[in-house]
Write a structure and sequence with these properties.
The protein has 275 residues and is mainly alpha-helical. 69% of the residues lie in helices and 0% in strands.
Length: 275
């Protein structure tokens, strides 16, 4: 919903405006790539073309921007300074590893890897920035002279700015309600013994993050005029499933092909022939 309503695009347009410093643009693309996992896989879809345009706007090769953005999103897929939807998933892997090593008698929470991922964000940003500036961009030449001159993204209209302000206010209000419901004396999101371990807040952190981001996107959509009815919100929810349909079709025929190779032993014949 946040992507479909244009809220994420508005945040990026608000942040980049009219950039001129090449090295600041490189660092901006890297940071956006590292933090993009807070909204799942959206970084691969949204950030790559934006990075190409940003690099071209300051005279850098757009292919270098695509590579930098792709590497940042891929290498930093779990690293983040904020809580993301990946933290509960990674916690299950940590729990399984701890059980096999017999070093954790209890249950690990979804935030057990946060300190490691927080530090990894800055380390990865430094490494990717250094490699991009010293190794990647020199291979494309000092300056890029393209036929298309880009002078920056279109500025947000007055209506879009008001919609973005309303979405941010709704997000802050939502955070305040969640914090009140967790840490106040009326904390309904705490466990029965008053702690945070295995509490509704920790167990449901994935839903709380997703709902908060979706709420901000929905408020922006209605305030900006992109959404008119609840049907538009449902369309935003079903859009990712439409993209998954293509993947399922490809995966189906690919699995049939591999099954035929295994049944006919043609794969072994090809490997033997190559040897």
């Amino acid at each position: 919903v946040a992507q479909h309503s244009g809220f994420i695009d508005a945040c990026i347009r608000r942040g980049v405006r009219r950039p001129r410093d090449p090295w600041r643009i490189i660092l901006l693309v890297i940071v956006l790539g590292l933090l993009s996992n807070i909204v799942g896989d959206a970084g691969y879809i949204i950030l790559l073309p934006i990075a190409a345009t940003l690099f071209q706007s300051v005279g850098l090769h757009p292919i270098g921007g695509i590579i930098t953005a792709y590497v940042s999103v891929s290498c930093g897929y779990s690293a983040n300074v904020f809580l993301s939807t990946l933290d509960p998933m990674i916690a299950s892997v940590t729990q399984e590893a701890a059980d096999r090593m017999n070093i954790a008698p209890g249950q690990t929470g979804p935030l057990c890897n946060y300190y490691f991922l927080f530090v990894s964000t800055f380390l990865l940003a430094f490494i990717i920035y250094h490699i991009t500036r010293r190794s990647l961009l020199p291979r494309f030449g000092e300056r890029y002279a393209g036929d298309i001159h880009f002078n920056g993204y279109k500025q947000l209209s007055r209506k879009e700015r008001r919609a973005m302000l309303g979405a941010v206010f709704a997000g802050l209000l939502y955070i305040a309600i969640i914090l009140w419901a967790t840490f106040s004396s009326w904390g309904i999101l705490r466990s029965v013994n008053g702690g945070l371990i295995r509490s509704p807040f920790i167990v449901g952190i994935l839903f709380l993050l997703s709902f908060g981001i979706g709420l901000m996107g929905m408020v922006y959509g209605f305030a900006s005029g992109r959404y008119r009815t609840d049907g538009d919100v449902i369309e935003g929810l079903t859009q990712p499933m439409k993209l998954l349909g293509v993947y399922f079709v490809i995966a189906f025929f690919a699995s049939q092909m591999f099954a035929c190779f295994e049944y006919s032993h043609l794969d072994k014949c090809i490997c033997h022939f190559r040897r």
